[in-house]
Design a protein that fits this description.
The structure is a homodimer. Chain A is mainly alpha-helical. Helix content of chain A is 76%, strand content 0%. Chain A has nine helices and no strands. Chain A has helices spanning 8-27, 30-36, 41-47, 51-76, 82-99, 101-108, 114-140, 149-168, 178-193. In chain A, α1 (8-27) packs across α4 (51-76), α6 crosses α8 and α7 (114-140) packs across α8. The first copy, chain A, is elongated and about 60 Å long. The interface between A and B is medium-sized, with 34 and 35 residues. The structure holds a DNA duplex.
DNA sequence: TTGCGCCGTGAATCCGGATTCACTACGCTG
DNA sequence: CAGCGTAGTGAATCCGGATTCACGGCGCAA
């Protein structure tokens, strides 16, 4: 007991994620993935119809985790004023990204095959949806001024993403410390949202 | 007089741009580009060391044009209050993008080879620099609250980009009309920047 | 006219990965 | 033990584009 036997499928998924984490999509070739999972290339196809399918699944699991973390943060900040809740939710997103930069970069900005990219789009929309909910609640409560909720949400997600692209980029090793970035981001968010 | 003879090189560049405009990078294969320019594939290599080099050049010329347009808009709005100038500059960016969605999408979001992608990053930074200048001026003039200029600038560029990704996406044909998007964006920008 | 570059040609070739598939190994069941 | 199914193997193959290069014309200068 204790040691769970990981299925081959799972091993392939983690192998892929690890490789992406270390060297981006480029490093995650079928051969490299299989090798890390202790298998031969052909075996991958016993478990996934294609490499792309495997990637999509990795993408989903990681992004799903992020979305979940954001929702949890929102939950936890339940009673705070709307603007603060939004700051907290997006700061959560940013902090998590900064803690695992290479993976975050892969999810946010690195070029990928179109089908995987579609997944990216989808998850951005979901992140935006999380933001939009809180935004709408804040407006309804009279805490925030009326505004185009969907656009503001998209702009916030995009804004945070872009603000992180620099710091996350595998090319630009070290910029300002994470806390500073997050703090500045919170100021930005608070204002953008129309908090007095 | 009047009719300028376009060099073969120029014809290849416009052919590539047109193809990207119509069908994205995927549509711009070496053969398609050469064909549209009225040439054979091999000829492209008499004028560019590689396909990539050609792409980078297209990218630069288009993005350079955008940057120029933004700077001009900033110039023209010279006397307006800082927040308004920023709105105007970014609205210019957005409007131009919305007028040529497929190309804008290719420049802003479509997956490309890393070297071309590097160009994208570089130009985002230049757009951000344009914003940062006005931002800094506004703060110096006491019109805007002090803030992390670079981060705000990046977040604004990213925010506008993301807000446009939906509307621009070749997959999602028609959302709200352009003016509405631009108007909502201006509200967002004004607030994000800290205008009273 | 001959010689020499320059521009252009496009079929043949290269290239880097994904994908296939005939085969082996192992464990289970009748 | 024979039969069968599942998991695994990895060398061979496929694939889609970029890239090469041996081979014309064409115009200019000697």
């Amino acid at each position: 007991m204790g040691t769970v036997a990981f299925s081959t499928r799972e091993r392939l998924l983690t192998a892929a994620q690890e490789l992406i984490e270390e060297g981006g999509y480029g490093a995650a070739s079928v051969i490299a993935i299989a090798e890390r999972a202790g298998l031969a290339a052909g075996t991958l196809y016993r478990h996934f119809a294609s490499k792309e399918e495997l990637f999509v699944e990795v993408f989903r699991s990681v992004c799903g985790r992020e979305e979940h973390a954001m929702r949890q943060a929102a939950q936890a900040a339940g009673s705070a004023p709307a603007a603060q809740r939004l700051e907290i939710v997006l700061a959560t997103f940013a902090q998590r990204a900064l803690r695992n930069p290479r993976l975050a970069w892969a999810l946010i900005a690195e070029p990928v095959d179109p089908r995987v990219d579609a997944e990216r789009l989808a998850y951005r929309a979901r992140y935006a949806a999380v933001i939009a909910e809180d935004l709408a609640a804040g407006i309804a409560a009279g805490e925030l001024p009326p505004q185009n909720v969907d656009l503001t949400a998209a702009a916030l997600v995009g804004g945070c993403g872009e603000a992180l692209v620099g710091p996350l980029s595998p090319l630009a090793p070290d910029g300002p410390p994470a806390e500073e970035i997050v703090a500045a981001l919170r100021t930005f968010i608070g204002r953008a949202v129309g908090a007095r």
